[in-house]
Design a protein that fits this description.
Elements (H helix, E strand, L loop, with lengths): L3 H23 E7 L5 E6 L2 H4 L2 H14 L6 E5 L2 H13 L3 E4 L12 E2 L7 E9 L3 H12 L3 E10 L4 H7 L3 E7 L6
Parallel strand pairs: 3-4, 3-6, 6-7, 7-8
Antiparallel strand pairs: 1-2, 4-5
Length: 184
């Protein structure tokens, strides 16, 4: 039987290996225009790790550890956060809601898809954060619907101001990886 320190070491080693695998699968060099409009010489293509079951399963397992106790529901911003919310929902058995970028113009005309009840504590899951704008917009939409949103859980923090922007919005920021932690 493994001791507690051995279990912690094994978990930490699995996390390091996951970070290496994500960087290997999704880190691209070149010239990229980011969602914020900024130009970057690198890009984390989230779909290159979110669409691989072996990587997504491992990411979901570690993200699930970051979901604070007392969370009632998860939220996944369209489009990249949806796969994460689905996978973590399956891991934890928590329901989730999808946050559209914009309110749809047909049928229910909702910006939120799925059930959400006023007063529920919702954690937003996102893939990569640069400025934090997508998470902030999602949190605002959820709050307008009556949710209590205090937590943003992300796979990668690019360390370009997102953490500070989220803090200014009253969100605790829980990145699985920071760019500086990944071997690139």
């Amino acid at each position: 039987m493994l001791s507690v320190p051995d279990l912690i070491h094994a978990r930490d080693q699995r996390l390091v290996e996951l970070g290496q695998d994500i960087a290997h699968a999704a880190y691209l060099r070149g010239r990229f225009v980011l969602r914020s409009g900024a130009i970057s010489n690198y890009y984390f293509d989230k779909y290159l790790f979110e669409t691989k079951p072996n990587l997504l399963r491992r990411v979901a397992s570690f993200l699930a550890e970051l979901v604070p106790p007392g969370t009632d529901r998860l939220a996944g911003p369209e489009l990249g956060g949806v796969a994460l919310a689905t996978a973590v929902s399956l891991e934890l058995g928590l329901p989730f809601v999808i946050v559209r970028k914009e309110q749809k113009s047909y049928a229910t005309t909702s910006q939120l898809e799925g059930e959400l009840y006023a007063g529920e504590r919702v954690a937003v899951l996102e893939d990569v954060v640069t400025t934090g704008t997508a998470v902030i917009q999602s949190a605002q939409a959820l709050r307008r619907a009556g949710a209590v949103v205090q937590d943003a859980i992300v796979v990668i923090d690019r360390e370009e101001g997102g953490a500070e922007a989220l803090a200014a919005e009253g969100l605790q920021f829980w990145p699985l990886f920071r760019r500086s932690q990944l071997s690139l």
